[in-house]
Amino acid sequence: MKALFSQLGYFALFAVIFLVSLFPLPVLYGLSHVLVVLPARFAGYRRTAVITNLARSFPDKSYHQIQHLARDFYQYLGRLFAEIIWLFSASGKSVMKRLSIEGGEVLESLKIKGKSVVVMLPHTGNWEFLMACSCPGRGSICGYDQKQLHMVYQRMDSPLFDKLMHTLRSRYKTGWRLLESRKIARYMAKHREEPGIYAMISDQCPGPAGKSIEVSFLGQPALMIAGPETLARKFGFAVVYGLIRQTGKGRYALHLTLITENAASHEEGYVTRRFARLLEQDIRENPHLWLWSHKRWKRTPPLQGPIFA
């Protein structure tokens, strides 16, 4: 009976979201401002975490400037919400028009060399627009066939929302094989001789039981998940930093930067610290386009001297 109610709840929620997603994107922006941005700002959605993270990351900014950044962040959060809703029914052609790729020659060169690649992604821009890479008719992505694209994801705490996001991310059957994080190591080992792209969100705070790497990030000691680097070093994969930057309202570019052609050739921590440094540079350029509502410094490394990133 519980499973039945869960299924009914999912279909009811999906139906509502799908119907709302049929509105044009500009209308959804307006709705999200009224229903998401204003309530989030005035009800204080994770406001303590947002203000604290911003203040610690930009100690040179005044209280007024921090408040201004927080306001811009909530505006971004509202647009992010509207765009994710829109993606539930948007045509593949419409989605493809809104995502471009910069630095594609990085992946093209690695494909020629027969390399598999771990693409380390941060929570910037709108990462859900990566589904544009798997739209029917897209063809290859920088030399890699759509069947060689893999998106690694971590299950959400809510089974309902986890199923909902899985449905969204697997809308198109032509690419982005979704791999649950707990199964990725075995899959990589089985397919290590087959060139492929493995995209992983890599900037979240590690869990209490997860392996982590110490970095200096935005002027603070921080822990980052070790999974992407550990897997890349284990199998000798290349690593690329993938920034999803905003190029216009509802338009994004995936900007690719090579970190290494062979993660196994570097000491432990090099890849993650390089990722942290690149991400920090991009955050400082557009601070409101990162997910400040995450409790990013919930866990920090013990003080054992300086950390070099």
What's the number of domains? 1
Strand order of the largest sheet: 1-9-8-2-5-3-4
Written as H for each helix and E for each strand, in order along the chain, the element string is HHHHHEHEEHEHEEEHEEH
Question: Strand pairing plus helix content: what structural class?
Answer: alpha/beta
List the SSEs and their pairings.
Elements: H1 2-21, H2 25-43, H3 47-57, H4 63-87, H5 92-97, E1 99-102, H6 104-112, E2 117-121, E3 149-153, H7 159-169, E4 177-180, H8 184-190, E5 197-201, E6 212-217, E7 220-225, H9 227-235, E8 238-248, E9 251-260, H10 270-285
Parallel strand pairs: 1-9, 2-5, 2-8, 3-4, 3-5
Antiparallel strand pairs: 6-7, 8-9
Helix pairs in contact: 1-4, 1-7, 2-4, 3-4
What does this structure look like?
It is a single chain. The chain has 309 residues and is of the alpha/beta class. It has one domain. The strands form 2 sheets. It has a 7-stranded mixed β-sheet with strand order 1-9-8-2-5-3-4. A two-stranded antiparallel ribbon has the order 6-7. The relative contact order is 0.15.
